[in-house]
User: Fold this.
Amino acid sequence: MDFALSPKARDFSARLSAFLEAQVLPAEAAYFKSLGGGPGPWKVPPVIAELKAKARAEGLWNLFLHDPDYGAGLSNLDYAPLAELMGRSLIAPEVFNCNAPDTGNMEVLVKYGSEPQKAQWLGPLLDGAIRSAFCMTEPAVASSDATNMAATAEVRGDEVVLNGRKWWSSGVGHPDCAIAIFMGVTDPTAERHARHSMVLVPVGTPGMVIERNVPVFGNFDEPYGHGEVSFTDVRVPRENIIGGPGRGFEIAQGRLGPGRIHHCMRVIGAAERALELLCERALTRVAFGKPLALLGGNGDVIANARMAIEQARLLTLKAAWMMDTVGVKAAMSEISQIKVVAPNVAQAVIDQAIQIHGGAGLSDDFPLTAFFAYARILRIADGPDEVHRGLIAKLELRRHAARLGLPKG
Ligand SMILES: Cc1cc2nc3c(=O)[nH]c(=O)nc-3n(C[C@H](O)[C@H](O)[C@H](O)COP(=O)(O)OP(=O)(O)OC[C@H]3O[C@@H](n4cnc5c(N)ncnc54)[C@H](O)[C@@H]3O)c2cc1C
Assistant:
């Protein structure tokens, strides 16, 4: 068993880390200060464009894409430490053109997009010239079950007509968001997993209205936003269907495999930075005559955080390695395992970091509340914990049923 980074990952890691320390982390405070804080419309602080140009010039761009024709050509295992580094900063993923939901949307276009779709939308996304949104979740139905989606994407002649209401469409409030992927029912009589289509909708198409940006713990995640979006008789050409009618569920599932692992890696980076801040604070602040680190059970808190992060990282790396070697389908249990473990570990570590910071931990002077929100969101987004636990249990029981010669069930 070799725990060392590959030479390629080591090289990218060193360069990315240096860039983060020298360019991104020092820009964070001014970036957040320049945001307006309201519900939109928003502007992007100019420092992002400057940092993007520099990162691209240094080859730190589209690192998530495994296909060398489109991205850096790194395996999941090689990308893992890089995503973790990016997770240390809330602004870093966009700087390297590696932020959700654009990463997942680009992967969809690489895998299922037609040549004209790639030319029109993938090119500008790869350039970081536009941003995108993924409109699957609906307020009216339990959306952890993708087959529940009730919005419609009816094929009428040369057009597809979209109707329905989506929410939590992340990134749709970004001023550069130019394209959304919409999931809707095309054939209600088809088998449950073959009813939906994924359709490309240019933002601004008549009938598509961003009704509001939905706050998370009172924060709008400016300048990305999580939109509630209505679609009323929105008409786009039939060629905007991705991969053909009826493939929506398949694309939704395919999109989530790599996306989940990227989130897990980033949230481990957030946990690591939280522990770093926790230790800095615990070593430098004194109460009752001693540094906080030496008071009560705070040493145990630090040790427990270190152990939990290491376990989460190893499991994430194992899942990444399995995706590379045996494929996403065979790694389904491990992907679900890390999707539960990483956000829960991160949430607990970040919570402890907030605690050690006292009142400061709850202020915006540190990134801790934003990290906490990110970890908490991930316990619901891309499948709630319970759905993943259900899948892990199902696969485990299936294995034992087979061993015992029992029916699949
Ligand atoms: C900040 C944020 C950003 C998001 N970004 C996007 C985005 O860009 N695009 C998009 O389409 N969606 C996005 N989502 C939506 C997210 O993926 C959904 O919220 C999630 O899939 C759950 O769907 P739901 O909210 O309808 O919960 P429901 O399906 O109503 O589930 C509610 C709860 O029921 C329980 N539950 C559900 N299933 C089971 C089960 N099998 N076993 C036991 N308990 C169960 C769980 O406790 C679950 O949390 C985002 C969400 C958030 C909060």
